[in-house]
Amino acid sequence: MTAEIIRLEGVSRHYQMGDETIRALDGVDLSIFRNEYVAVIGASGSGKSTLMNILGCLDRPSGGLYRLNDTEVEGLSDSELSAVRNKEIGFIFQSFNLLPRATALQNVIQPLIYAGMSRHERRERAMAALKQVGLEKREGHLPNQLSGGQRQRVAIARALVTNPAIILADEPTGNLDSSTTAEIMALFDKLIESGQTIIIVTHEPEIADHCRRVITISDGRIVGDTGSKGGAA
Amino acid sequence: MNRYLESLALALSALKANLLRSILTTLGIIVGVASVITVVSVMQGFTDSITKQFENMGSNTLLIKPYVPFKERIVGKRARLTISDYEAISRAVDGIDMIIPVVFQAPGQLRYKGEQTSLQYYIGTVAGYDELNNFYPQKGRFLIPSDDTYRRRVVVLGADIRKDLKLPADPAGEYVEFNGQWYKVVGEMEQQDSTLGFSQDNMLIMPFQTAVALLRDKASENMQFMIRVKNVDEVPRVHDQVSRLLRKRHHIGKRDTDDFRIETSEQIKERFESILDAMTYVVAAIVGISLVVGGIGIMNIMLVSVTERTREIGICKALGATRADILIQFLAEAVILCLLGGVIGIAIGYGLGALVGALVPTIPEIVVPVWAILLSLGFSSLIGILFGIVPASKAANLDPIVALHYE
User: Fold this and answer.
1) How many domains does chain A have?
2) Which of A35, B117, B198, B257 has an alpha carbon within 20 to 30 A of A181's alpha carbon?
3) pLDDT digits over A105-159, tens only?
4) Is residue A213 part of a domain?
């Protein structure tokens, strides 16, 4: 029995640009279950980034319903949304987005600070996460002392460390060469094996092919969904 | 609480990363606090020295002097005290232990063997002035009653004169020329504490009657009486009695104001202190302005810093930082900056105060009062919060999506 982690019902996101209303998302229905390995693809401007922002609780839908891990996101206060981001979501970005003045270990520790964890426990969990991505020997390095692949692995460790319900990766290999890309994708595969749920936003077909389910977005609507296990197409 | 302590650590690391900029930013605060500490410590030094000066004059002493309001003085009205006033008070008022007349006159030229100096003032008085003012000769003698009786042309010099005129180590017995007349030096007074940094020892003292003869009718405008009351409790009664007597003698109508003023040593001290207080307030206001300017500098750099770190703020928000986390981190940064400036400012201010103390020997000792330190630190923190709140809330209210994509 697989649990439904994400449920979107008629979610839309409209922006006002002068007199014009831009419908970045227009009535999206979507269900994602635990341990799914999902790729969201679409041309630029299709709305996939907006979907990612809404799934990641960085943005609120203009309309519709979003339930994340049984939490109704609608109506949460700003600080409650922060807590949801902290506990339920692990972000991975194209440009890694590590804190430049913090070491690899400090970067991984950062979300645990916001979780209010004790100093000792933080360190232990962060070291475990670094070990999981094979960087336990680089804990003291600053981001600019690491290669692109290593930086992204630190970012993955940081995303994992809070034990989130989903990992949201936005073009995670966009800044990496092909061999490093393979490395990172292998790491994702390993995470899936250990039971993680991963959503990758990408425009690269090879990455999408790697995933088990591919959702295609165009003009703010879902126009294709392979291997859906219960979500509306 | 724990997570806010971490915000503090983050703020510290951000400041360390831009150490030079941080220190330059706090320059305004440093200058402001350093001036507070310097001024307060020097003022405190002055106040202490003045307070000590008036402690010499006992609290049972009254000073009577002619007084006309400035408004009437400029239309030519003059107030006078006369020798017969003096005699009437001595005769009619009970409870007086000692009363002496003093004429004050400024300034004059003093010569000795080709050297000359300008006096700040000179005094004509009688024996007993030394005792009443707790101000004694260090060489030779003070005036004696017969000096006055015979209007002797003798003078007691202030402590600075001998050096200025290159007089011998013991000037007693030498002759000096004062305003064209020759006087015999009989003694030299001890050093006095300075008033507001000015030496009071560039003066001389001569017999009262000698001075009166020299000044003729101008003497009564510059006449003062010093009274020592036998019993401190009787000061108010003596005060009243003298006042009534003088009003009668000067034919002052019931509704008219006194043409004299009776001051106790306490009042004189208070007047000095109120002048000092006023100066302190003025300086404090100037310093306050410089601290505000310093605060604006801090705000300016903090705003730059928020812009520079927009992306970082976005990352922290994505990782689960709340508005409060970001707000506190940047507020902490501003307060730490200001406190850093405050601490450096206190150190510099203390150094400058000590320097002034070393250069002006009459300020006994530089003490930085604890309240000034606490006030400076408190005010610096306040400035930090006040001017940090705008950049901090700007940071806290950043939209995470926009911040994350900021280049």
Assistant:
1) 1
2) A35
3) 999 999 999 998 999 999 999 999 999 999 999 999 999 999 999 999 999 999 9
4) yes
Residue among B378, B380, B370, B384 at smallest CA distance from B40:
B370
In the predicted structure, residue A211 carries a pLDDT above the cut 50:
yes
Bin B299: left if φ > 0, else alpha if -120 < ψ < 50, else beta: alpha
| Run of H or E including B223 | strand B223-229
Residue A101 and residue B401: Cβ atoms within 8 Å? no
Read off the tokens for A12: 């839309």
**Tokens in use for B112?**
């000795």
Q: Report whether pLDDT(B15) > 50.
A: yes
Nearest CA in chain A to B1: A116
Token duo for residue A57: 């609780």
Domain of A184: which CATH number?
A: 3.40.50.300
Extents of the domains making up chain B: 2-53+271-404, 68-258
Range among A141-150, B16-25, B76-85 rated most confident: A141-150
Which chain B residues are closer than 8 Å to A82 by Cβ? 317, 320-323, 325
**For the segment A16-73, what is each residue's pLDDT rounded down to a tens digit?**
888 888 888 999 999 999 999 999 999 888 888 899 999 999 999 999 999 998 888 8
Q: What are phi and psi of B225, to 5 degrees?
A: -120, 135
Are the C-beta atoms of residues B50 and B65 closer than 8 Å to each other? Answer: no
What are the phi and psi torsion angles at A24 (to 5°)? -70, -35
In degrees, rounded to 5, the angle at the alpha carbon of residue A147 between the alpha carbons of residues A142 and A135 is: 70
- Interface contact flag, A97 B311, Cβ < 8 Å: yes
Q: Is the pLDDT of residue B185 over 90?
A: yes
Q: Which residue has the tokens 């003032």?
A: B121
Residues of A with CB under 8 A from a CB of B: 53, 56, 58-59, 78-79, 82-83, 85-87, 91, 93, 97-102, 110-111, 113-116, 118, 158, 162
Q: Note the pLDDT of residue B322.
A: 92
Sign (positive or negative) of CA dihedral B295, B299, B302, B308: negative
Q: What is the DSSP string of B69-123?
A: -HHHHTTT------HHHHHHHHHH-TTEEEEEEEEEE--EEEEETTEEEEESEEE
pLDDT at residue B109 is higher than 60: yes
Asked if the Cβ–Cβ distance from B318 to A158 is below 8 Å, we say no
B260-302 confidence digits (pLDDT tens): 888 887 777 777 778 777 877 777 787 788 888 888 888 998 9
Report how far apart, in Å, the C-alpha atoms of B182 and of each of A94, B141, B153, B309 are: 101, 19, 7, 83
| Structure token digits, residue A101 | 């003045």
Give yes or no for residue A14 having a pLDDT over 70: yes
Residue B78: which of B238, B299, B250 has the closest Cα?
B250
Strand partners, B264: B62
The domain of A197 spans 36-60+77-225
How does B75-110 read in b/e, with b if 16+ C-beta sit within 10 Å? eeeebbbeeebbebbeeebeebeebbbbbbbeebeb
Cβ separation B320–A100 shorter than 8 A: no
Q: How confident is the model at residue A1 (pLDDT cuts 50, 70, 90)?
A: very low
- CA A69, A70, A73, A74: dihedral to nearest 10 degrees? 160
> Strand order in A63-68's β-sheet?
A20-33, A4-17, A63-68, A71-72
Residue A189 lies in a domain: yes
